[in-house]
Design goal:
By secondary structure, the protein is of the alpha/beta class. The protein has six helices and eleven strands. A hairpin with a 2-residue loop joins strand 7 and strand 8.
Length: 218
């Protein structure tokens, strides 16, 4: 594991449950499109387990800006808004790469951050996904289950699950953490409930045994 891990886990009182047989997958819609000072926000990786997905979802390269999605995912991982922001600040201060952190989440906590599409565009104000990773997602889940692991999938944003048929997998669907959803009165309570209170009742949909508590690392 990476040299920063022990100090990081000590700092944030992170515990690894080696007896846990569950692999957790958080699926976003598409990578960030923004750049700042010539730096792409999206995090590219050729390393496993991201080789087929190409990008690590939600994380921001060099932690250059705290995007809404990054902040809300860290809220959930650390079961606290303040701790989530503190963790982002720590990673940036200690120059931990976002790619390493994505790999750490999977190898140490069995949490995989991937996107449904490699790119997207807007057509008549509607999201259009480009280069669907559905085959790779289904293959990954199938291979994991063949090894005897249970799988929990959190779909983030309605486009992440579109026509993706999962059988025998516990899953939940959450409102997308983009701040633009705070302008939609019908979504505000679900947004707050999921991303600040981690309340399963505010998920759009969920299977019987699915819970957001499986996606915390503290």
């Amino acid at each position: 594991m990476f040299p920063w891990v022990n100090e990081f886990e000590k700092k944030f009182n992170i515990k690894v449950n080696y007896a846990d047989n569950v692999v957790r997958i958080i699926i976003g819609e598409a990578p960030y499109k923004q750049k700042l000072n010539g730096i792409d926000f999206k995090v590219f990786s050729k390393k496993n387990p991201f080789r087929d997905f190409r990008y690590i979802a939600f994380l921001v390269k060099d932690w250059i800006k705290v995007q809404d999605s990054l902040e809300m995912i860290f809220n959930m991982l650390f079961n606290s808004h303040s701790k989530g922001l503190e963790a982002i600040s720590y990673l940036r201060k200690h120059k931990v790469s976002a790619e390493e952190f994505g790999i750490y989440l999977y190898k140490r906590h069995s949490i995989l951050l991937v996107n449904r599409y490699l790119d997207s565009k807007t057509v008549t104000n509607k999201f259009v996904g480009i280069n669907d990773r559905n085959k790779y997602i289904l293959d990954f889940i199938s291979n994991i289950r063949k090894r005897g692991h249970d799988v929990y999938v959190l779909f983030v944003g309605k486009e992440s699950k579109k026509k993706l048929d999962l059988k025998g997998v516990e899953s939940g669907e959450a409102v997308h953490p983009s701040g633009s959803n705070l302008n939609k009165p019908k979504l505000v309570q679900k947004y707050y409930g999921v991303w600040y209170r981690f309340n399963d009742k505010d998920l759009t949909k969920a299977t019987k045994n699915f819970s957001l508590k499986h996606f915390t690392i503290v």
